[in-house]
Write a structure and sequence with these properties.
Length: about 110
């Protein structure tokens, strides 16, 4: 499994694979931790959804929508700290293209 993952990601070193896993772990933890304070800052709290049908699901979706952009930004920042910017920038570009958000990556014409 590790061999296939290294081939898929185009890396040859087990050490780089460990660093990549560390970057993913830190990024996930930090972005999840920041979601609640950000929602609180925006004035959105779980108690606001108690009387709303499917309120808990709606609040959870809001958290996901908050975590998603935070995660993308933090991923690049943490990757840079661990000297893995190139790998994660390529990873981000592929991810955004698959999500249908490739307009973020369009290059401007230099005419």
């Amino acid at each position: 499994m590790i061999k296939r993952l290294k081939e898929k990601w185009g890396i040859s070193s087990n050490a780089q694979l460990v660093v990549i896993f560390i970057v993913f772990a830190i990024t996930g933890s930090v972005s999840a931790k920041l979601a609640t304070p950000l929602l609180n800052f925006l004035g959105v709290e779980p108690i606001d959804f108690v009387e709303v049908p499917f309120g808990k699901a709606i609040y959870t979706l809001l958290r996901i929508f908050i975590v998603f952009p935070i995660y993308q930004i933090i991923l690049i920042l943490v990757a840079t700290v661990f000297f893995q910017f190139k790998f994660f920038w390529e990873f981000e570009k592929k991810f955004l293209k698959r999500m249908g958000l490739k307009f973020f990556l369009k290059k401007k014409n230099k005419n």
